[in-house]
């Protein structure tokens, strides 16, 4: 793979230069730099200071850093396991949060205010109630469960099954159980913080020592007055829970909560969630299916966030047409299967002397193997292709930022945009006869999903 | 008070390191740092350069700086007298402007585009007409007055009294009189600049040397042509006013302007302003009252800004329930009385080694005494409590950013969110029996406003 | 011209200090600074690194830099030829793009997400189809042409003539011909990127080596499968075009495409474009005319962008009233003629010792000669005047950011805002009798456009 961005090559040179300095002034400079970077969010800044300390302790951080930047330089659009941090983990499940997009690259500044998180819960397991200072939309990637939200005067429960989509409003207190006996429940979330762009926190009220309850941050006299209760009784209540935020429930507890949900659910479940498989299937043939949810179709849940959602099912050995989204940036998460991805990425234009002939942009290939959990960002206007491996279907859920009035424009296949050019436009643009253009652009009879390439570029790697 | 954020402790270490350097290179480095900080607004950058010069002059700036950062570290959510700058001051009144929120902390980046200002005017005093490059909403905290707005073809006057709320659109030319004989008129403004996020300016057309008229910035030949008037006559007009922008009016002048307003007002006053006390009182008992204005209720004034407004009246010795706003960040300004404030603030999560057990967030107490003029920022989702001192009622006006569809969720009292949990959820979450949970969460019979704590933490300090 | 901002004078001091250092550490520091400036967009960052390299090669970069900053300090609101970069250029036309506003000054941060571009095309010339990852609105400043947009299932053509305005949605593939035999076609575009604030790219699908086709970024096996076509045939198609993105068409080709457009156009042209001269003429007299398009009048094209458009025609030797926009920032581009511009710019307030008397803002004059292609940014609330030279009418198109509910407030002439003040307000504000105020503010009988000044300040310069 060639490096996509000259910029990052320059960064490497610069990093090497820094490495020539002596140890101590370096640490000092490092701290000064961190201090001056007040535009950074707290997480990133803390990491900045940490890196300085690691320098001092003699670790050869430059090595690691160069690698990291080289990798970023090659492809700032792909995120894998190591780009997630653990928000919470017990022996029964975990919440993982993808790094901030702008911590990866300034090129992703347009989606800075969005985060991706996944929640994985073991069978017969309970997630302690909490609220987040963020709006979110989640997709049930695997398993079944029940989510319950509470307010001061009511409670609503929703059954979750694979393919379900649900909006969680900022500040809603909710808890989840996985009532299945065998399968994990996996949710993929797109999170939009409401306080600080790109940063959010979970707030646990119920709890004790672990998860810590936010009640314990208040003064004792405040709590005594608020609860009209003596201090010792309060301490007994808020000191018991030590098992963490994701914990095993007994069969009775699971059954009780599931039972109650069945009863109490009524029409709510219909209002609160909808399933991607019951949505418009915009394209479908033997090579794959595309399901699309437009923000205007689910006003209550998606319109104010302007988020669209799509599900791509690609048959093993098949591929999508090269295509682009007109105005959405798509955050794609691989739910199942393997394959690979290619995207045309416009180059940095070379600085030019005044008055010279300028060629306009050129394009580099961005490519990556895909496996479960891989996250890919596809900016608007960028042509891209997804290929399923020869052994497995590939399933990808996409959150489409700026989703309203977005169109997917196919660049090959039966209905492609080039076929609509006038004869003279084809001839002038390609510099050949219309016949030669049509020979290529009219040879593919399928639409949107095609038979994939005979030899798969990443086949070896993704099958390792 | 414990430090809320580890981050700021690290800053102190770093600042100390800088202080070890020699003087001159330090000044140079300082200037380079300021120069490189192009993301700063002009005010802050100028302050940056100033600080460098102060270093050169031998002042021990490090001392002051460390203090300032320590204080910020402890509590970036509270603003007092010293965090205001004077926008304009004469012997008859003043305009004060709170520092930019992001000059205080990156944690406040979500409200970066908002500013708080106060206008204090003596009895029988006139504020010279001006327009601002900012939208604003103001609350009349004390006194009575008349505000008049002018356009090219009309003039409208509005009587102002305590509790009135009014929207001022960007670019509207207006002036104010305090026609009372004894009482000051005090307005509290939330300002949203339209040109540069977080920065705004006042434009005085009428005026002369002080306040300076913007007409004098134009070339003489332009003014001569524009006014069809000779230069000497122009210089006479624009050179007279030297008393400043807030000046004493004669009784006749005040009466004339008040009279005309009474006449001309008619229905306008009803359209232009509304009073908080005539709004929905969402909660009320012997311990306090809450008045809330939703942006959707006053579409003309508040909807496009998405600002809600609330007024909290807490009886002496009483307190609010611990509660949080689901999606609004609240900028609260103490209008009258004394008391104190506590908030649970989620900690920086400690960086963890891969695969280890992660506990999720923990919470620190943010606390501050409250007195007239104190400004507190309460981010969405953060549980907080306000307590009135034992001697005085406490009155707080709140501007609620992202006000539409915001809910206040009570965490104790008759209707609280924990009471809505299912039995099994209570037991699993707290690790105790439902009975033990209910003993605490059902003991307080009041709703929203409660009898306050017996011993007030900040009582001593706020009564000094 | 006096310097508008004290800030930039400080920058010069700082730059001079840097210049005293030795060469090599300077280059190193330079690179470190560039590296640390992660908040910069890629273009600017690359330029940062470039500047470091130029230092190393011994060029006296400081000289040039000081000049540039001095100029910026004097007037960050004016852009001329040298502030454009060439996006694409062949011997038959070019696309030029104005530098990012925030690369010029942080004062322009409020319009950071907008860019200005111009497209100039020779007679009988064709622009190869492309799509942009940006929304845009363009104004036909000169000439006639035809623009055709294509989608997967349809094609629409629009005739363009001087004064036409058209919205191009992000991701729309389109091409342009200039079918005239003699005149160039000139479009002025306001561009709003959808991916990264302030950055956009063009995507050419049709093409070959020059313009490069984005198809060539994909792997051969992907293209073979997508097009169901052998590699050699693909290479033949995507290797032919070498003439660049703007190329000469034969008379037959031009005729064929024009013919087809006449036929196919039908009602579309009416829906797709509208002409500024058919819009509301809000002001008109012998000295000039103002045409204004409000975003609410053309919902389909302008409302979601909240962009208004205005056209100012000033008769030779005439001028506009001093006026300000209440909430729009106006990006004005000189389409024809010469003249000059003056604006009142509020000063940095001097830092003041606590409790002292504060005068409020003061105002500096920002002034510049105007000639074809000059771009001027006029922030909301800032009073400004435009004067046409004595020899030529002056024509200026304005894109008004935040266009809805904007008002233009005249500060002199028959209907001006000062005339609406009450008698007492005039007397108090100016410190003179009402008669003296009225003598000046009622002398000019014209409205909005006036006879210009006798001696024009910039006449000499702009006529050189």
From TrEMBL, chains A, B, C:
Fetch the Pfam families from UniProt. Cupin_1
**For this UniProt entry, which residues form the secretion signal?**
1-21
Recite the UniProt keywords alphabetically: Signal
**Record-linked InterPro entries:** Cupin_1 (IPR006045), RmlC-like_jellyroll (IPR014710), RmlC_Cupin_sf (IPR011051), Seed_Storage-Functional (IPR050253)
Which residue numbers delimit the Cupin type-1 domain?
82-235, 274-438
| Protein name stated in the entry | Cupin type-1 domain-containing protein
Please report the organism this UniProt entry assigns to the protein. Penstemon smallii
């Amino acid at each position: 793979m060639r490096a996509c961005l000259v910029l990052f090559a320059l960064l490497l040179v610069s990093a090497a230069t820094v490495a020539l300095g002596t140890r101590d002034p370096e640490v000092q400079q490092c701290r000064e730099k961190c201090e001056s970077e007040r535009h950074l969010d707290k997480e990133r800044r803390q990491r900045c200071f940490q890196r300085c300390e690691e320098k001092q302790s003699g670790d050869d951080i430059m090595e690691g850093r160069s690698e990291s930047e080289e990798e970023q330089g090659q492809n700032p659009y792909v995120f894998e396991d190591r780009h997630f941090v653990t928000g919470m983990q017990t022996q029964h499940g975990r919440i993982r949060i993808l790094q901030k997009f702008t911590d990866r690259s300034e090129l992703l500044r347009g989606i800075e205010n969005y985060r991706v998180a996944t929640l994985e819960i073991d069978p017969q397991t309970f997630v302690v109630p909490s609220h987040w200072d963020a709006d979110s939309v989640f997709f049930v990637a695997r398993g079944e469960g029940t989510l319950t939200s509470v307010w001061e005067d009511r409670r609503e429960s929703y059954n979750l099954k694979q393919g379900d989509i649900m909006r969680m409003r900022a500040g809603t207190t909710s808890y989840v159980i996985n009532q299945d006996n065998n399968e994990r429940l996996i949710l993929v979330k797109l999170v939009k913080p409401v306080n600080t762009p790109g940063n959010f926190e979970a707030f646990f009220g119920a709890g004790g020592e672990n998860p810590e309850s936010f009640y314990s941050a208040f003064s004792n006299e405040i709590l005594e007055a608020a609860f009209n209760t003596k201090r010792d009784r309060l301490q007994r209540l808020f000191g018991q829970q030590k098992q963490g935020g994701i914990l095993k429930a007994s069969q009775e507890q699971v059954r009780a909560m599931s039972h109650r949900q069945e009863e109490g659910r009524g029409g709510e479940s219909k209002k609160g969630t909808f399933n991607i498989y019951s949505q418009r299937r915009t394209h479908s043939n033997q090579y794959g299916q595309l399901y699309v949810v437009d923000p205007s179709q689910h006003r209550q849940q998606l319109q104010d966030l302007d988020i669209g959602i799509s599900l791509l099912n690609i048959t093993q050995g098949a591929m999508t047409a090269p295509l682009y989204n007109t105005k959405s940036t798509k955050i794609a998460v691989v739910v199942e299967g393997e394959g690979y991805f290619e995207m045309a990425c416009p180059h940095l234009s070379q600085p030019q002397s005044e008055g010279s002939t300028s060629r306009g942009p050129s394009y580099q290939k961005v490519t990556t193997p895909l496996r479960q959990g891989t996250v890919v960002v596809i900016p608007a206007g960028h042509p891209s292709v997804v290929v399923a491996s020869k052994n497995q279907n590939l399933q990808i859920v996409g959150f489409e930022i700026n989703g309203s009035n977005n169109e997917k424009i196919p660049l090959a296949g039966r209905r492609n945009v080039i076929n609509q050019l006038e004869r003279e436009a084809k001839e002038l643009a390609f510099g050949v006869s219309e016949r030669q253009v049509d020979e290529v652009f009219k040879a593919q009879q399928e639409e949107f999903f095609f038979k994939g390439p005979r030899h798969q570029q990443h086949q070896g790697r993704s099958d390792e």
